[in-house]
Amino acid sequence: MATKVQIRKLSKNEHPLMLSEIPKPPKELYCEGELPDFNNYKFLAVVGSRKFSRYGRDVCESLISELKGYPVVIVSGLALGIDAIAHTAALKAGLKTLAIPGSGLDRQVLHPRSNHKLANEIVKQGGALLSEYEPLMPAGLHTFPERNRIMVGMSHAVLLIEAAERSGTLITARLTTEYNRDLLAVPHDITRITAKGVNQFLKLGATPVTESADILLALGIEPGVSTDQGQLQLNDLSKDEQKVVEILSADPLPRDQLVAKLGLEISKVNILLSAMELKDIIKEEYGDIRLAVL
Fold first, then answer.
1. At 251, is the pLDDT very low, low, confident or very high (cuts 50, 70, 90)?
2. d(CA 206, CA 219)
3. Given this model, what pLDDT does residue 64 score?
4. How far from each other are the two terminal CA atoms of the chain, in whole angstroms?
């Protein structure tokens, strides 16, 4: 049985304004989740190979983790490989993330099926899924290049992490230059297949990225001026999360003692604690759960 989701059709004034700048902007957009305020965030599209290397994965996770606390939204396509890594890294860093799949958003057709859990987590943690297709529209060969134009069009910059010489990722890179968005690229080992496309765009003038500061500068954000001062803001947390923070503010506790103090079903507590760990609010060390941010 398909999971019931809340999908709504956006009004025209809810469409990202930057999409009006591109050729053939989407006539309709469907959304599940909470769209970020387009006026208060910079949008970074992250694209790369489905057949990623360990280097590509590590670089993607590292760069995105270092954007924690900055007003940056990570945009990607929910695909296998670098897309999924980018979304997951954003969730772990507490960043908002926006997924634009090449299908409708109903779970009967949402592509790929293996990333349904990730899609649910994106929505659960305050992000959103966005598509120009009717909710029950399945993915097709033409839908992926079409959705790429939306990813690029609504983003201030595009980060290219890995791409072979002939790949769909390079279509996105070309659109970036055509739409006058900043194209950023991570230099790669020249002996690898997934390096050829990236290094080619570096030759053509893409901005090389070797640290997160390069991304922030491209987005017009001053490195070092973060909105995250390492302090927990209780009003940004759910009631249950606030209760966990209040309990752990005194001392770290073993999981069973924390469960007892919360007075909630153990299954609910496990889900709650997993989500808080993903947000880097808590961490479990040596059998105790403690606050990760003081």
1. confident
2. 14
3. 96
4. 43
Cα 283 to chain center, whole Å? 22
Strands in 48-196 per DSSP E = 72-76, 96-99, 128-131, 157-160, 182-185
Backbone torsions φ then ψ of 158, nearest 5 degrees: -125, 130
Indicate the pTM of the whole model. 0.75
SS3 track for 1-40: CCCCCCEEECCHHHCCHHHHHCCCCCCCCEEEECCCCCCC
Indicate the pairing of strand 157-160 with strand 182-185: parallel
Q: What is the pLDDT of residues 79-97, one digit of tens each?
A: 999 999 999 999 999 999 9
Amino acid residing at 226: S
Distance between CA atoms of residues 292 and 280, nearest Å: 6
The single-letter code of the amino acid at 126 is G
Return the domain boundaries, the chain: 7-218, 234-291
Q: At what angle do helices 168-178 and 193-203 cross, to 10 degrees?
A: 10
Q: Residue 162: which of 64, 53, 63 has the closest Cα? A: 53
Fold designation for 234-291 = Arc Repressor Mutant, subunit A (1.10.10)
Report H helices in 191-265: 193-203, 212-218, 239-250, 255-262
